[in-house]
Design goal:
Blueprint (H helix, E strand, L loop, with lengths): L8 E4 L9 H28 L6 H18 L2 H8 L5 E3 H34 L4 H4 L2 H27 L8 E2 L6 H4 L8 H34 L4 H29 L6 H25 L2 H19 L1
Parallel strand pairs: 1-3
Antiparallel strand pairs: 1-2
Helix pairs in contact: 1-2, 1-3, 1-10, 1-11, 2-4, 2-10, 4-6, 4-8, 4-9, 6-8, 8-9, 9-10
Length: 310
């Protein structure tokens, strides 16, 4: 170690085997990034301006929109500069910050999906006590708990990854820094960091998924007991959007972090799509099938046009 110079910056290598496609990828990713920003800002606008949406369900949906705005913003600006050929380096501190905020925001979304599943469970399985169960104080505590738990999760991962010495090589096989592409660059034994990251991510993802699965099992049983077909359809429609988002979220997590074998090209592609594409789908999933959100958006946009016209 005395004969090696510590790494002060890393070189981002992008997705393997995509050389020559930088401009096409830039247009593709920029389009989805702008859709993510616009779509989630509209959802946030609807939940803030419409009094009909001031309920626990839409409170958590508004939180999800906030995190869907910040989540791709962790890596997208640097990725856009890379694709334009302006900057392919990232400082050691910048790499650590990317890893921390990526896992902080990702874990927060994971917890938030679990909380949203619990909210749907309370609304459908205990409708008469729903307002008492999901009162404003409980919603605030649940939201604050997701932030605090995610901060601890991301801090542990960042500590174990960046307490290792890095003395070269410094080529990161992706557009941004994450555990699977940074750990192999360490010039020390990474077995402890690998075990901690696999266990930490695995336990959080598995526990949250089991809680979501348990909630929806109870929800389906309750829905099947509803006598009217219209009531069953309404209950299923309120849950299907959330369940779709959950499946889109957990699929990449399993592929990237919980597979025994690693494929650099597949990991990089899935991770970039998870960062850019998935956050842009949530506004479509929640608004296209939700009459309340569409009505609130229409009213907010009409009021905005009138204000601008005046």
């Amino acid at each position: 170690m005395r004969n090696h110079t510590p790494v002060t910056e890393f070189l981002l290598m992008g997705i393997p085997h995509t050389q020559g496609l930088e401009h096409a990828l830039f247009v593709f990713f920029l389009t989805f990034y702008l859709l993510t920003l616009v779509g989630n800002l509209l959802i946030l606008l609807a939940t803030l301006t419409s009094s009909n949406l001031h309920t626990p369900m839409y409170f958590f949906l508004g939180n999800l929109s906030v995190f869907d705005i910040f989540f791709p913003s962790v890596s997208s600006p640097k990725m856009m500069l890379y694709l334009l050929g302006q900057s392919r380096t990232i400082s050691y501190q910048g790499c650590a910050c990317q890893l921390f905020f990526y896992h902080f925001l990702g874990c927060t979304e994971c917890f938030l999906y679990t909380v949203m599943a619990y909210d749907r469970f309370a609304a459908i399985c205990h409708p008469l006590r729903y307002t008492a169960i999901m009162n404003p104080r409980v919603c605030a505590i649940l939201t604050l708990s997701t932030w605090m738990g995610s901060s601890v999760h991301a801090s542990v991962l960042t500590f174990f990854v960046f307490k290792l010495p890095y003395c070269g090589p410094k080529e990161v096989g992706n557009f941004f820094c994450d555990i699977p592409v940074v750990l192999p660059l360490a010039c020390a034994d990474t077995s402890l960091a690998q075990t901690v990251s696999f266990t930490n991510v695995g336990v959080v993802a598995l526990l949250c998924f089991l809680l979501v699965l348990t909630s929806y099992t109870r929800i389906v049983i309750s829905i099947l007991r509803i006598s009217s077909s219209e009531g069953r359809h309404r209950a299923f429609s309120t849950c299907s959007a959330h369940l779709t988002s959950v499946l889109l979220f957990y699929g990449p997590v399993v592929l990237i972090y919980l597979r025994p074998a690693s494929s650099p090209w597949l990991d990089s592609m899935v991770q970039v799509l998870n960062n850019i594409v998935n956050p842009s789908l949530n506004p479509l999933i929640y608004s296209l099938r939700n009459k309340d959100v569409k009505l609130a958006l229409r009213k907010a946009l009409i009021q905005g046009v009138h204000i601008c016209g005046v």
